[in-house]
Amino acid sequence: MAAFLFYLIMISNAILACSIRPPRQISEATEWSSTRKQLENDTCRTGNPVDDCWRCDPEWETNRKMLANCAIGFGRDAIGGRDGEVYVVTNSSDDPINPVPGTLRYGAIQDDPLWIIFEDDMIINLKEELVMNSYKTIDGRGHNVEISDGPCIGIYNVTNIIIHNIYIHDCIPCGNKTVRETPTHAGMRGASDGDGISIYASKDLWIDHCTLTSCNDGLIDAIFGSNYITISNNYFFNHNEVMLLGHSDDFVEDKDMQVTIAFNFFGHDLVQRMPRCRHGYFHIVNNIYTGWGKYAIGGSANPTINSQGNIFIASDDNFTKEVTKRENFAGDDEWKSWNWRSDEDIMLNGAFFTASGDTSPESYVKASSMVARPASLLNNTSSSAGALSCKIGQQC
């Protein structure tokens, strides 16, 4: 067990080194072939269903849109810009009111579906939050693409969004300014909190293989009736409130929220909310947690939490061994009826999960979105969490 713990620590260090990666060059992307490769027999397969779907293909650049067929969990129907044209970002500048062609904002606000890729390595410092229109994919594969040191991504009242292979960090509040939302409309935007990715009243969303750290508020927040979301293969580190799922205890519309959190690596210097849940159904499956300052998984307002096949490694602090935390009034035992379970999780260095509610598998049917792998196999998949370095003509 000690050797296994040492191996996981080494993985954590390796991911950090890979996430801030050197520049890579790729050729201009070509159109997607609708013929999906048969990759079942490739030796590169790891058991991670997302990665095994596309990463064995040496022609991944040509077949970029195949990614849209690889989603798992509750957000599996998110197709992003699969049915649209490829749009290439050539310009890292940002004009929130009148964005110019070639910029990320110009592509993100278009009415038609678009698969957005990047011509080169880019650091994009947005002047106002990037407001996205429906049926968009932001695909950073092949380059070092950062959105940082300014407002970041807002997903409001839209559907079918994929965000893949982007490094998002040091996001700050903004708002009370005019921002263009579509090609024909610019309006006043209220203040934002400084989230890395802010999701509001949206559905069919997939956030995969991104690296997120050091934002003013949450790294990923989903509220106000958002639904059918998968957050997978991401690397989170150095942040306080990582992920909020659910608007407030009084906003009962979030009771239908369904979110899958799978194959993520929760790295060093994270404090809490991995995630914090309200009302809905949350499948937390095959993630690795390498310590937490307060707690890892928390919630209020009777969320159902189905934790399966995760690895929880507590810090050496004897006061932070518990994985879970319930927000409830002092002396109120209502939380004991909330359905929270730990199924085949591995607990290391004294970590423990406080279960509650019904123990029968039938109580978690609605909170299940995929088949969990044994937690002991995660050492084969965890080192590829976060933004990837993919070379043209090679398996990624």
From TrEMBL:
<dbReference type="InterPro" id="IPR011050">
    <property type="entry name" value="Pectin_lyase_fold/virulence"/>
</dbReference>
<protein>
    <recommendedName>
        <fullName>Pectate lyase</fullName>
        <ecNumber>4.2.2.2</ecNumber>
    </recommendedName>
</protein>
<comment type="similarity">
    <text>Belongs to the polysaccharide lyase 1 family.</text>
</comment>
<dbReference type="GO" id="GO:0046872">
    <property type="term" value="F:metal ion binding"/>
</dbReference>
<dbReference type="InterPro" id="IPR012334">
    <property type="entry name" value="Pectin_lyas_fold"/>
</dbReference>
<comment type="pathway">
    <text>Glycan metabolism; pectin degradation; 2-dehydro-3-deoxy-D-gluconate from pectin: step 2/5.</text>
</comment>
<keyword id="KW-0456">Lyase</keyword>
<dbReference type="Pfam" id="PF00544">
    <property type="entry name" value="Pectate_lyase_4"/>
</dbReference>
<keyword id="KW-0479">Metal-binding</keyword>
<dbReference type="GO" id="GO:0030570">
    <property type="term" value="F:pectate lyase activity"/>
</dbReference>
<keyword id="KW-0964">Secreted</keyword>
<dbReference type="InterPro" id="IPR018082">
    <property type="entry name" value="AmbAllergen"/>
</dbReference>
<keyword id="KW-0732">Signal</keyword>
<feature type="signal peptide">
    <location>
        <begin position="1"/>
        <end position="17"/>
    </location>
</feature>
<dbReference type="InterPro" id="IPR045032">
    <property type="entry name" value="PEL"/>
</dbReference>
<feature type="domain" description="Pectate lyase">
    <location>
        <begin position="121"/>
        <end position="318"/>
    </location>
</feature>
<keyword id="KW-0106">Calcium</keyword>
<keyword id="KW-0134">Cell wall</keyword>
<dbReference type="InterPro" id="IPR002022">
    <property type="entry name" value="Pec_lyase"/>
</dbReference>
